[in-house]
Structure formats: structure tokens, C-alpha cells
Amino acid sequence: MMIPIRCFTCGAPLADKWDEFKKRVEAGENPSKVLDELGVRRYCCRKTLISHVELIQEIAKLSRIS
Amino acid sequence: MEITVLESTPTRVRLLVKDAPLALVNAVRRLILSEVPVMAVDEVIFLENNTAMYDEIIAHRLGLVPLTSERALEKYRSPEECAECTDCEDCFVSLYLDIAAEDQPVIVYSGDLKSTDPDVQPVYDNMPLIYLAPGQRVSLEARARLGRGKEHAKWSAATVAAHKYLPVIKFDFTKASRETVEECIECIEGASREIAKKLREMKKGEYQVLEDVNTSLYHYCSRTACKDVLEIEYRDDSFILTIESTGALPPKRILTEALRILEEKSRSLLEALGASTGGGESS
């Protein structure tokens, strides 16, 4: 839904890197290079950032049942 | 025992530990992961939340946010005293959040949390926590305390604490044919160009792999292209210990804290043994 705060597998903080990752990849940079420069080394963290789809904007339109 | 720092950054450290028993290095590794205390949000009181995310999801996300803990280790009481406290003095730090989105969506960041103690704050202030659509509001009080990794991974001071035996490449290019050497070097270049270059220059001898590379490929090479020319061995009395911090504590502090806990535990074990043998019981 939103970017995970930490990597599911190893627990390294990831959410702090999301905004920059998204901005740079959308500007056309190579995701692999951006991850290297952000210091995301392990493939568990890399796959979490690469494969993340931000769906919260869509879900937030629906009201909550309480 | 001899310790050399191979790499040191604010969140990561790699140490070469020579002439140490495996049991000791492993004890330190385990203590780093499960015993070194850090601050993390443990309880969240929701005053209002009409966002798309349930209270529990937000509480979980808040719990995972790393909080600066270096000063907190002295200021606050131990996890054991605070986990089930009745008088919770010097246990909790409150972090407040009260944000409403009016006609534009708002992303709440970790930096929006207002802490009652400047020593305990989110390490990174740019973590997206909550998304507010227009008209939505969230108001909460998050209470953080010291805890240990064995209770929940959010209290683990390190994301990586690992050791491996020191890899040593033994090789002799002088007796092999030129083609074999070239083929062999091409194979080991797959793991690291720098190491391959150094081996080519050395021609013969032993090379300790202190670089942060995966040595699995050298096994493959030693069986194929480098047959009878190169071998890889592991020194079982020397270790490379890697510690990667979440940012809550500097890696150096994590290590000293782990050693202090090890000392404490050893002492209490000795005391317990002394008490039982001193009692005159034969066993």
C-alpha cells in the first residue's frame, strides 16, 4: 500500500530512500545505479524498492467502514 | 586477539578479528542482534484516525521507525523494568502527531513526529508514514521505550551482524602454461577485478581476501579454469565481522554495548556457579 518502513527480510530502513528513488527513476535514471548510490546493497532490499507499487492514493479515495 | 578495522561508515563497520575462538565471535554477533537495547515505539494511543489505514497498520509502521537511542541508554530504565511497569517513570518518551488534510492530500513523514525528548527522535525524517486524502485527519500519541531484539525485531540495534572465516587464496601461476593462467584470471575476475589484478602481479603466494566480496566463485574457479593452479581456504581462527546499524546507535556503540552485556552475563554466570559450589554441595 505505502512503501514499507523497513525491508521485510533484513530489517534495514528503506522508507527514507523511497522519495529519492522514485524521483530519480521517474526522471529516467537506471534503477540499479540509483540503488547502488543510495547504498541499498542486498537483493532483499533492492527487490522491495524496485517492485513497490504505490496504491495508497487509490485506496484513500474509498471511505473507511467503522 | 587482534582486531583491525577494514571499513567504517556511520552505519556500517567491518572488522578483522584474528586469533579468536568462534564461540566468542558468535556470542558477540548474537548479542548484537538480540540483546543491545534501542528505543522504538511500543504503544500508540489514537485520538482520531479516519485515514484509509487501520490503527494497527499505522502503529506497526510507527514501531519500525528507528529512533536515536545513544543518550537514551543512560537516561531511561531497562527493558525488563519497563515492559510490565506499574510506575512507568523514566520509561517512555511520547511522540505526538496531529495532522489534517484540508483540500489537498498530505503525506505524513517521520519528521512530523514531535518528540517530548530531543535525544529521542526519528533517525530519518523523510520516511513516508501515512497518506491523508482531503478531509482526513490523524491525531495520535506514540509511546517509545527501550527494548531488546529478542522481544521484537524493531528493537534490534543492527540489521546485519554476521561473521565469516577469513578466506585465503593460495595460488601459483609460475608453473602453469600461459593459456591456463589467462583462463584462470578471467574466471576470478568475475568476483573482483581488483583481486584478479593483484593475483596477476603477485604470480605466486597467498592472498587474504579482506575486500567485501563473495568468495563462492573462487570455489568454482578452483575446480574448473584454475585446476591445480589456485585453491581457496578459510582460516578458522580469523573472522570478518560485519555490523550494519539501523541508525539508532553507531556501529561502534553497538559493539561496545554487546561486549558490556557479555561481560555482565559472564559475571552473573560465575556468581551463580560460585554460590552453588560455595554451598558445600558436591556435584
Characterization of this structure:
- Chain A is mainly α.
- Chain A has one domain: Arc Repressor Mutant, subunit A.
- Chain A is 48% helix and 0% strand.
- The longest helix of chain A is centred in the first third of the chain and has 12 residues.
- Chain A is globular, with a radius of gyration of 13 Å.
- The mean pLDDT of chain A is 93.
- In chain B, helix 5 packs antiparallel against helix 6.
- Chain B folds into two domains: 117 residues, Gyrase A, domain 2 (2-Layer Sandwich), CATH 3.30.1360.10; 118 residues, Beta Complex (RNA Polymerase Alpha Subunit, Chain A, domain 2), CATH 2.170.120.12.
- The longest helix of chain B is centred in the C-terminal third of the chain and has 28 residues.
- The two termini of chain B are 34 Å apart.
- In chain B, strand 1 and strand 2 form a beta hairpin.
- Chain B is an alpha+beta fold.
- At the A-B interface, helix 1 and helix 4 of A face helix 2 and strand 7 of B.
Taking all residues together, what is the mean pLDDT of chain B? 93
Treating each run of at least 4 consecutive H or I residues as one helix, how many helices of chain A? 4
Q: Percent of residues of chain A in beta strands?
A: under 5%
Low-confidence stretches of chain A: none
Mean pLDDT of chain A: 93
How much of the sequence lies in strands of chain B comes to: 25-35%
Helix and strand content put the structural class of chain A at: mainly alpha
| Number of E-state strands of chain B | 11
Task: Report the span from N to C terminus of chain B.
Answer: 34 Å
- For this structure, what is the CATH class of the largest domain in chain B? Mainly Beta
CATH topology heading of the largest domain in chain B: RNA Polymerase Alpha Subunit, Chain A, domain 2
User: Pair with the most extensive interface?
Assistant: A-B, 22 and 29 residues
Uncertain parts of chain B: none
Helical percentage of chain A: 40-55%
Please report the total strand number of chain A as a whole number.
0
Strand/helix succession of chain A: HHHH
Number of domains of chain B: 2
Radius of gyration of CA atoms of chain B, rounded to a whole number: 26 Å
